[in-house]
Amino acid sequence: MNPSDLDPLREHLSSRVIGQQDFIDSMLICLLSDGHLLVEGMPGLAKTTAVKALAEAIEGDFHRIQFTPDLLPSDLIGTDIYRHEKGEFEFRRGPIFHNILLGDEINRAPAKVQSALLEAMAEHQITVGQKTYQLPQLFIVLATQNPVEQEGTYHLPEAQLDRFLMQATVSYPNREEELQILTLDSDQQKSEPKPPAKQLSQHDLFQIRREVAELYLDPKLNHYIVDLVQASRKPEAYDKDLARWCRFGASPRASIALARCARARAWLDGEEFVAPHHIQAVAPAILRHRILLTFEAEAEGITTDDFLARLLDMVAIP
């Protein structure tokens, strides 16, 4: 397998979504790294459209859940139903048992629903009562959320945020891209959107994942990855401003995610080994939702991306 095998998938995404290349790359990296993606952006920026387009181009079951304040955990994972004719309980599976799960506006649901996702995202299984049920081998959660300043949104628990491999941010399109969006919408009103030229089979996807996992990562770059994550926890060793801005650093999951995603980034670039710039390319999306800034940083208008840009400049490359 090689990166050109993903060309039909890329072409389908490009035909449905204008611009947003970083967002598309994040979806592909999570897909190849067997991880989950959190997407944040204002309403109307094609977050849901992009996720649905990705699902159309992959062999597997797809389901969308609209998260609302009255959603219950059983609406997500399923529940035991008593069958009178059998005299026993029977488990009715919920939508979480699909291969690709779109959690739309995930931060509009209360914490008890968010907690229902924790076991599924971390261990690919759920527990109902005294029984544990395995999820499909291909299981990926692509969740969208609106900024917390929006009405009716909740902060996601830090434990759940850490389960997402990456967090992508979607920004407004520029003028040329918005003109293309108008043209695309006009064309879609005249005829149905074209299906993907070829779906990526699960067999091929798992083969690509094995190749990604085997891509060479020099031990010196392992040290660089750990130095980056350690710097988020002990920023005072690098810069006094970094120390003022950071309350909590990233967990060891961030180190694992950096290695996995850097391999996927290198594979997509057609490289046979991981280089430092691959790690730096994926670092913001991996670390931005795992770092908690101080109130002082927020008062100064410092964003997590500002903090990470400074951090990447401070930590030496081997």
TrEMBL record:
Database matches in Pfam families: AAA_3, AAA_lid_2
Superkingdom per UniProt: Bacteria
GO MF annotation list: ATP binding; ATP hydrolysis activity
SUPFAM superfamilies cross-referenced by the UniProt entry: P-loop containing nucleoside triphosphate hydrolases
Ranges of residues in domain ATPase AAA-3: 36-166
UniProt keywords, alphabetically: ATP-binding, Nucleotide-binding
Xref: InterPro entries: ATPase_AAA-3 (IPR011703), CbbQ/NirQ/NorQ/GpvN (IPR050764), ChlI/MoxR_AAA_lid (IPR041628), P-loop_NTPase (IPR027417)
Domain ChlI/MoxR AAA lid: from-to ranges: 247-309
Family indicated by similarity: Belongs to the MoxR family.
UniProt protein name: MoxR-like ATPase
Annotated organism of origin: endosymbiont of Ridgeia piscesae
